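Hey team,

Filing this mostly as a record. A colleague (T.K.) asked me to run one chain through the structure pipeline before their review meeting, and I want the input and output archived in the tracker in case anyone asks later how it was produced. No errors, nothing strange. Just documentation.

Input sequence:
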Amino acid sequence: MTIQRVGIVAKQGLVAASEHLGRLGPWLRERGIEALYERDTATLAGDAAHGATTMTRDDLPREVDLVIVLGGDGTLLSMAARIAQSRREVPILGVNFGSLGFLTEIRIDELTSSLEGVLAGTAQIDTRAMLAADAYRRGQQVDSCIVLNDVVFTKTALSRAIELSVSVSGGFVTRVKADGLIIASATGSTAYNLAAGGPIVHPMVDALVLTPIAPHTLTNRPVVIPGSALVEVRAHTNSGPDDVFVTYDGQSGYPLHDGDTVQVRKSEQVLRLVKAPARGYFEVLREKLKWGER
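Output structure:
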């Protein structure tokens, strides 16, 4: 993999990243690599971004060979979706500010060594499965998106519980009455799914997870299904059109009407994620989940 142009994206308003952004652009240019800044990130970088190419987050993935994200998992998720929509498989190097992230697992003091590994071709890059979601209303497709972590159906503030019919690969599974339902990828199993009591699935396992949120029937439990499955969820709204809300990676969403369906499957697009040097998946789990601590 030859790196000639690198896109730089920071969490909006992350002033703590300014100093590091100021060093990153010149460091890349010294090595003959062009640094392209997301527009708000260029403002944070200050003089270091003077004269550099700037563009929107939507346009950046089409122009670069690597994206560096400084911030947290939410910032990385937003860029992962944009990269998928561009139909390219540009690697992401995620740098976390604060506590270690499940996705942005590289610490700021590891940025230079991680970049050197990418440029030398020695860095480990994980391939993560993504989810494709298509929404239908009265048989007509009204939306399509690609996400990394999950598709979540929840109730709105004024609704009590929601009802959803769930089918897997054409076979009816159940009618869920709950506060919501999570369809998660293996990578997304450590996100909302984990908080809702769902299982942790290693990201290299080809599987999807269905996890009800506070189900009214205690026998409705999380289910792990093959990654090749097609999940269809139909909304049943009783008191109004806005009872059920669907969100994609916590980044976007909208209300569903009675009878609307959302089909979720593994996407043909994948995310290529630069791994932290000398830190494995289970080390991240131990640190994030405080395993072995009293």
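Quick notes for T.K.: The chain has six helices and 18 strands. The chain has a mean pLDDT of 92.
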